[in-house]
Amino acid sequence: MTERGGRAFTPDFLTELFRNPLDPGYAAAAEQRRRHEAAGRVVVGWRRSSVRMVSVLTLVALGFLLTVAYRQTVAAEPSRSEARAGLAAQIRQREAENAALTSQAERLRAEVTRQRDSALSGSAVARLRQLEAATGLGRVRGDGVVVRVADAPSNADAVTGAGGTNLGRVLDRDLQDIANALWSVGAEAISINGQRLTATSTIRAAGGAILVDFKPVIGPYEVSAIGPGQMGRRFEDSAAARLLRSVSEEYGMSFDFRGVDDLTLPAATEPQLRYATPAVEPTSPGPSSSGGGTSPSPSGGGR
């Protein structure tokens, strides 16, 4: 400030306080904060741009890989379809060949039986027929029962298999129990879905299939048996029937049996029997008696 006469006066403290109320340190701190915020916005912007660029590149790479995989899948589909069709054709051909060979074997077996019967006497033929019926190698006919079991409805997905285990599914041991129970109540001949059981028959599981004498059978399963008149009532009281009834009531398995008049069971296929023969031991000279005693045992002592 100046007065008349040219003298200059500096402003007093109060005037300066009201004129500039903010301390210079606060102003410097605010300026520094503004500079940091500006730099941070630049860094954040750069980071966001980098993340966006990486995301775009990742999506582009993923799309490229999916496109390549799709093209390869489409390109390989004709060859896969051709291979699948070829395998299906081979399976059908082998099935037809198997059926033809089975028919031929049945015709040859019938011819052998006719030639045998013509060469033997009547009593010998009757004895052979009884033995064939007892061993399962001959077709039999008579009254009996048919036990029918089938899987319970499954809630599992047909593609993924999700939905849990079907506890009402028929297992190989269920058919084993039925067959053993029928044998125990007097059955003279048994077949499962047309497969005749013999003394060497097997009932096993392979994956999800049940094999009878190494031949697959599919449900519903029918166990047919020929035997005495009281066989059905005795089977109803057996432990196997009680177990299957409880499984049927609890898990929904289908189980029933009925008496059948004039039931016919086919003959079993010729069994592949193997006979064990003792091996011929090589001759070797015995222990010499000149030593005056027996040879020691491998452990160095004896009892």
TrEMBL record:
Keyword Lipid biosynthesis: no
Keyword Repeat: no
Keywords: Coiled coil, Membrane, Transmembrane, Transmembrane helix
Composition bias type Gly residues, residue spans: 289-303
Stretches that traverse the bilayer: 51-70
Coiled-coil regions listed: 91-118
Region spans: Disordered: 268-303
Pfam families according to UniProt: DUF881
Source domain of life: Bacteria
Family membership: Belongs to the UPF0749 family.
UniProt protein name: DUF881 domain-containing protein
Native source organism of the sequence: Plantactinospora sonchi
